């Protein structure tokens, strides 16, 4: 490849920009402490994982063998035998959620999707793409699904085959919907296990919950029909990717034979990135289960330290059990832009990840606390003056 001097200069400038900003994110859950230098030689090849990794394909430059091992790893992680599930490496969490909803719609043509208002924004796109009827269930203040509202909507619809979209770590607050409670509510409406579909969106928490001492229910053994996890979040990757797993019996209904590649295909995109399975395989092989537990424990400890700092300054910060998402009142726009915080309405969050430097986190906390005190001290002084005036 030969570029002009001007084009090369532009690339050089972008390289320095990336170096400067590679650890920018406090509000977004992409771990940046990865090193895939050993895989760089494979960038010279057009790796295309087209179709099912379990079948031979006419397209020989694929990484099917590595993808199979990635799927088996996650099958073990989410407590389902490899011969009872099927999955693949996706372009990201949204594709995994689309795949789960697609399977559910193909299983239940009369199904209605139920998801909380704290569900990831991509689900609104998914229901339009699939033309899937959807009910937006209210959320509790902490972001967890409001199960009473779920029951009310189930009662109104009298849907024979509800499709439940459960959040296993919401985007803004890190809330985990209670799979057991959801299934109790379904049972109260006379719905048996074969009458509904339960998908779990575990974009970030899918690589957290399996490695903590007291996880919330999050596996196929807890009732899931499918689950989606992001690969570029807690694992870390130079490009977006993810993994989706589903019960094999559901996947069979969407599998089609493709003459062009002499194989079957049941994926959303058909042609798929053959490099991302290599990335995930290398990441998973390079760290033991105890290593993952240590990694998660470090992130949780950092979250608790941040909360302690916030609360000592009067900022009402908090996190959910097993979450590394620290939630607090939204600061001013200059502050949240300066530190790349995620915001929604009057709420903001930061996410504690392994690559973050302590000084980076401290600067953000200092700025938020200083701003909070300038907002609250005057009100405190006014209240004190009023109390003094009334007592006199």
From TrEMBL:
Its cofactor is pyridoxal 5'-phosphate. Keywords: Decarboxylase, Lyase, Pyridoxal phosphate. GO terms for molecular function: histidine decarboxylase activity. Transmembrane segments: none annotated. Its EC number is 4.1.1.22. InterPro entries: Group_II_Decarboxylase, PyrdxlP-dep_de-COase, PyrdxlP-dep_Trfase, PyrdxlP-dep_Trfase_major. Signal peptide: none annotated. The keyword Lyase applies. Gene3D superfamilies: Type I PLP-dependent aspartate aminotransferase-like (Major domain) (3.40.640.10). The keyword Lyase applies. Belongs to the group II decarboxylase family. This is Histidine decarboxylase.
């Amino acid at each position: 490849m030969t570029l002009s001097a001007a084009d090369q200069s532009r690339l050089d400038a972008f390289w320095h920009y990336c170096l400067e900003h590679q650890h920018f994110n406090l509000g977004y859950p992409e771990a940046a402490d990865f090193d895939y230098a050993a895989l760089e030689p494979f960038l010279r090849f057009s790796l295309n994982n087209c179709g099912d990794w379990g079948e031979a394909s006419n397209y020989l430059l694929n990484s099917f063998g590595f993808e199979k091992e990635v799927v088996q790893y996650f099958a073990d992680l989410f407590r389902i035998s490899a011969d009872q599930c099927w999955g693949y490496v996706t372009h990201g969490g949204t594709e995994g959620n689309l795949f789960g909803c697609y399977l559910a719609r193909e299983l239940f043509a009369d199904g209605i999707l139920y998801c909380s208002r704290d569900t990831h924004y991509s689900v609104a796109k998914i229901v339009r793409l699939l033309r899937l009827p959807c009910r937006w269930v209210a959320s509790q203040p902490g972001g967890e699904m409001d199960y009473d509202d779920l029951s009310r909507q189930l009662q109104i619809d009298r849907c024979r085959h509800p499709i439940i979209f459960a959040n296993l770590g919401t985007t803004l607050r890190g809330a985990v919907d209670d799979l057991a409670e959801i299934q109790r509510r379904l049972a109260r409406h006379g719905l048996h296990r074969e009458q509904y579909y339960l998908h779990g969106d575990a974009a970030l928490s899918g690589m957290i919950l399996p490695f903590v001492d007291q996880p919330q229910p999050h596996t196929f053994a807890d009732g899931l029909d499918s689950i989606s996890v992001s690969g570029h979040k807690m694992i870390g990757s130079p490009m977006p990717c993810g993994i989706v797993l589903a019960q094999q019996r559901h996947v069979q209904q969407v599998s089609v034979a493709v003459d062009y590649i002499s194989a079957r295909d049941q994926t959303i995109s058909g042609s798929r990135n053959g490099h991302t399975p290599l990335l995930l395989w290398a990441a998973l092989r390079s760290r033991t289960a105890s290593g993952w537990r240590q990694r998660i424990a470090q992130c949780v400890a950092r979250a608790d330290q941040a909360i302690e700092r916030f609360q000592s300054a009067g900022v009402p910060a908090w996190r959910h059990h097993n979450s590394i998402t620290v939630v607090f009142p939204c600061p001013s726009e200059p502050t949240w832009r300066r530190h790349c915080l995620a915001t929604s309405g009057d709420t903001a969050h930061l996410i504690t990840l392994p690559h973050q430097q302590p000084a980076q986190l401290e600067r953000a906390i200092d700025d938020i606390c200083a701003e909070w005190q300038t907002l609250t001290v005057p009100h405190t002084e006014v209240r004190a003056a009023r109390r003094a005036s009334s007592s006199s």
